[in-house]
Amino acid sequence: MTSLVELRVLEGPNLYFPRATIKLTLDISGLADAPTATAKRLAARIGLRNARPGEPGTGFRQRFAARAVARLVRAVAHESGTSRLAVRVRPTNDPHTLVVAYPWRHRERAQEMGRAVAEVLDELSTSDVEEVVERAAKRVKDSDPGAAPTTITPRIPVIAVTGTNGKTTTSRMIAHIARTWGKHVGWSNTDGIYIDGELVEAGDYSGPSGAGKILANEDVELAVTETARGGILLKGIGLTRNDVSVVTNVTADHLGLQGIDTLDQLAEVKAVVPHITRKSGWAVLNADDPRVFAMRQIIRAQPWVFSRDPDSPAVRDILNVGGRATTVIDGWVSVLRPNADALPVVELADVPMTLAGLSRFNVENTLAAASAALAIGIPLETVVDGLRTFRPDAEHNPGRMNFFSLGEVSVVMDLAHNEAGLEAMLEIMNGVRRPGCRLLLGLGAVGDRQDELLERLGEMAGMHADVVAIGHKQSYLRGRSQEAMDALFRAGLERVGMGDVASYDTEVESLAALVDLAGPGDVVGLMCHAERQEAYDWIAGHGGTADDPATLSAKVRAARVV
Question: Which domains does the chain have, with CATH numbers?
């Protein structure tokens, strides 16, 4: 069968429908290149009257093919006993490939329909169209129905967090605040499953299985789920709905994978999370990101935005329709409500994650977390206490903006997996660098990023760091060689005049080399993804200590001395 490129079963809400869906990726070359008479016979058989399929290989034929494939799916479904079926068709970056999606209630029969539709496309040029469509419908009708979807309707409140950057930190902050409230909290993310702060199962659980495992624990009273792009696209969301959703931002990352090639398409994927927020709940959206703010058009929930600008037109718009906003006024995290005075929550100087407001990205994460916590019903005093006690260290936020002291050298570790992440990391490094001292950066990324992004990371590193060393992530090369990664990083570095950059096989080796080069007051940053624990152990083994909030504040003050 050549027309069926992929058949994927999505267990829950997804890019195409807010319920379990079959996603077909179809090669329509046969239909695109078929004689016009054949295309017209197919159109007549499936009820497309007065169709004008255009000549083979033309743009008109491609558009006809998309319409005809959708109608073919409906025709096979109807003739096999399904009275109504929603079908959506999306183009891809290959003009001969289409994605076709339709909801399902019976797993085996729904998959059989996908295979039957592909068989029709395969036999267009060799069989009678009437007969092959009839045979496809009979094949589906006679198939075993199979199991129903396993999508879970939650029995407890759920806060779902998505976005390109900041979702892990934001969800960790929310979980910490909820635990401060005295609740038993379950949390799933790319690291694993956590119950009350303890890792109970390691692995990437940002898809539907993570939510399912949390909700299966009868002791959990509140769930916080980190929902990644891959989980939505490859499996669907495992829950029928959430009570509060958070979208942190949409920036360039993972483009070119699973048919998502642009930021607008990526925003569509992220929008699935607020789209399934219950009507009585709240969708917390970044008002400073236009793609995220636009999601207000597709939500049923009440809108709650966050913005660093209290006078933002987006904030005014939301207040005018009865929503809420969290912002910064006179250095205070503050909540705005319609026809009411601003409610001060906590001073940014008292929130360790923001470095006294220095970290713009963590200010935004703080605003998002405070919004979600208040929206789910956590008392204001508890939210304040939780924000004041959540620290940027390996205990509360492993792998994200972790600070250490190695003698008079500062070390910053962060995932920094894309442009926005590296920008945030460099902002923090500069914020603790004493006058006259240097930035030394361990540069690295996973191998499935686009060439352009890898070159851009090299360019950013060369523009802002005084010394750069490449540290590879052996278990995350994802089909690329180290030499290919080096070439792309170095292309970006050389574009801004930085050459002769050393490359190391591991992240820890690059860290060790940079620390060896660092002097008093210098700041070493490590883009760490693969060897987080090994890096922690290396730092501890060389006399390093994690910075507490007081130490961090002292570093920030010293960096501001002119």
Answer: 4-141 (no CATH), 158-389 (3.40.1190.10), 402-560 (3.90.190.20)
